[in-house]
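Appendix B, Record 12. Input sequence as logged:
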Amino acid sequence: MRVVNPETSIRGRLAPSPTGALHLGNARTFLVAWLLARRRGGRVVLRMEDLDHPKVKPGTAQAALDDLRWLGLDWDEGPDVGGPHAPYVQTARRPLYRQALLRLQEQGLVYPCVCTRRDVEAGQSAPQSGDDGLAYDGACRGRFGSYAAAAATLPPGRLPAWRFRVPDGAETVFDDGFHGPQRERVGATVGDFVIARDPDGAGYMLAVVADDAAMAITEVVRGDDLLAATHRQLLLYQALGLTPPRFIHVPLVVSAEGRRLAKRHGDTRLAAIRAAGVRPETVVGVLAWWCGWAAWGDELRPADLLDRAELGSIPREPAVLTDPVKARLNVS
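Logged structural output:
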């Protein structure tokens, strides 16, 4: 299966999170990421993003590896195979995040924040397009002399968040590999944004930037629900003096009603589909059909798609979990 050119500089990644089982939407995105790297002789890195401690479920990390291998995907570096950029599990990479946070602190670009969602809502003067539709008004800028001082104002068990101080007038521009040119003024749409809810900076927004740079990732393929977050991450790349990868945001898989996949739409977990006796070739065939790379009913392995995986063939709208798809994959 492995089709690697050791001279290539292309490095893609798969980044599952052990907060739940992989479902068809995850599988489609991972398949696209794997194919785009492999078809050009690139390397594939697997990183387990397990920083969301309260939601991490025992056994799900290994289950994710098992599901991906069952699907026919492989990787050149990862928690189970090692590699030059180990460790490949985020909870073991906390010193890297601490160093990144320190660099931001030295530049005066982060500060502790104790604001709740209600506080952010109260600070809005008009609807904005930040996280959950909220924009932060900078209420905690300059409020505390240290993280410890901020923490002392909170009840036991609750920690301050680290927010990035968005430079006035900062504008981010990038050319998404699927959606094309993107431009945003983060200060106007989001305001100062949260990079971590951890004293050492171990949070998704900062960690993913530090990890992708440290692992020399050149291409990030992910769902287009993260398209807006890319502007924030680009500000972090710039502040840390790091080179960002190429970003490709592909449409999600949604229910027939256009909603994110949930249990009410049937059990779309790869583990459940496997347990129902469905062949991996059947699943890959449906994923490829969603991408415009195969005919309905094709039975395929990922390697069969290496010559077909063109971004321009992927429909612009989300893939839909229709009744025929559910029947073919035995999704109950």
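The chain has a mean pLDDT of 92.
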